UniProtKB/TrEMBL annotation:
This is Dehydrogenase (Flavoprotein)-like protein. InterPro entries: FAD/NAD-bd_sf, Geranylgeranyl_reductase. It comes from the Archaea. It comes from Ignicoccus hospitalis (strain KIN4/I / DSM 18386 / JCM 14125).
């Protein structure tokens, strides 16, 4: 069985590694190297890190994250506390470089080439393969022509990496504020000696200026101190996923198929989920999507409500929950996280706050 994988971003790399167990894989990448240009913050669940750690070294893991504050930028809000190893911040460039090394060691053939045509029958630029996986990222040009692409809502995100001092290593703050992140949220990820401050916004906003503004808030609150050493970002997709990710012998994956958690835009977990569940018989590739696509679809309206809520709803919600600390164990499935919160001892307060904030808007 010969399989072509188009695109050596995260999803193409993990797909190649898993598929190499059942097929001869050729991985096409338009750039000569992987991991560039960098765009992603690299926050994943402990479970995703555990799965990846069988392919890459521990150096890829920049630090554990066990506490997530959700609220207003001035520090009014609720803290979600996870167990040990709840989440991790990864060095994304290094992750992709090491994944490529693993893929090559597994016998994957890496070809530097811009693929310009894929057909449903498995032709990749006139060469016939038994199957093709398109992992071309959010531009999804090949996938669109094949009718397998997603049509997700998109926001534009930017990260500022600050080297110096972070007040609470292991804690991330997520801020809902229309003046910093219109249509999404801002974030501060704190590690030992370093932090990443980022924000995202719908089209038309100056996301660089917004990210600088978020950094000023983080500095004013004493969360972050140091020098901006790196700036990177790109398109964040917030669902829905493609309902037809496969056409005959070709499937799209990763951002091309809209495999992103709609609430956060996180793409690493859903891509890994699909890749690691490719059945031993490649003919059944399509089955791998049957669990994750409906889940991402169900999460999409929750994301729309959260990202689109007016500022007064955020203020009401987080003021009502200010100072609360809630325990959670689920990071990858946000509907489950919500269910965990609703079952918590403070469920009544949470529901009351949600109702007050969102009804009537
Ligand atoms: C600011 C920001 C922060 C984010 N933070 C997180 C996070 O914390 N956690 C998380 O899980 N996700 C996060 N994401 C989302 C995550 O980065 C993406 O979902 C993920 O990187 C998508 O991977 P991919 O392989 O599908 O696409 P890409 O990484 O875009 O890779 C596509 C590859 O295909 C190649 N390619 C494209 N077309 C062709 C062609 N025709 N021929 C050959 N090669 C081609 C490209 O060169 C590229 O290398 C973030 C995204 C952004 C923008």
């Amino acid at each position: 069985m010969r399989v072509a994988v188009v695109g050596a971003g995260f999803s193409g790399l993990v797909s190649s590694i898993y598929l190499s167990r059942v097929a001869n894989v050729t991985l096409f990448e338009e750039h000569g190297e992987v991991g560039v240009p960098e765009h992603c913050t690299g926050v994943v669940s402990g479970a995703v890190w555990e799965a990846l750690s069988s392919f890459v070294s521990s150096e890829v893991n920049e630090g554990a994250l066990e506490e997530f504050f959700l609220g207003l930028p001035e520090g009014v809000g609720v803290t979600l506390k996870g167990p040990k190893g709840f989440a991790a911040k990864l060095d994304r460039r290094r992750l992709e470089e090491e994944l490529l090394e693993t893929a090559l060691a597994e016998g994957v053939k890496f070809v530097k080439k811009l693929v310009i045509r894929v057909t449903p029958k498995g032709y990749v630029d006139n060469e016939k393969y038994d199957r093709a996986v398109i992992a071309e990222g959010w531009r999804a040009e090949l996938s669109e022509r094949l009718g397998v692409a997603a049509k997700p809502r998109r926001v534009y995100g930017l990260n500022l990496e600050v080297v110096g001092r972070a007040a609470y290593p292991g804690r991330a703050e997520v801020w809902f504020d229309k003046s910093l992140a219109p249509g999404f949220f801002s974030w501060v990820v704190m590690l030992d000696g370093k932090a990443v401050v980022g924000t995202a916004a719908t089209k038309g906003y100056d996301v660089r200026a917004l990210a600088r503004k978020a950094l000023e808030v983080a500095e004013r609150r004493g969360l972050v101190e140091g020098e901006v050493k790196k700036e990177y970002g790109g398109v964040i997709q917030t669902g829905p996923p493609s309902l037809t990710p496969c056409a005959s012998k070709v499937c799209a994956t990763g951002d091309a198929a809209g495999l992103n958690k709609p609430v956060t835009g996180g793409g690493l977990y859903p891509s890994l989920y699909v890749a690691s569940r490719y059945p031993s018989n490649v003919d059944n590739l399509v089955k791998a999507y049957r669990v994750i696509v409906p889940r991402l679809l169900a999460e999409t309206p929750v994301a729309r409500a959260l990202h689109g809520a007016p500022q007064r709803a955020y203020v009401k919600l987080f003021t009502a929950l200010d100072g609360e600390v809630l325990r959670v164990t689920e990071y990858d499935n946000h509907l489950k996280t919500l269910a965990e919160l609703v079952q918590s001892k403070k469920a009544f307060k949470l529901l009351k706050a949600l109702l007050k904030a969102f009804y009537p808007l």
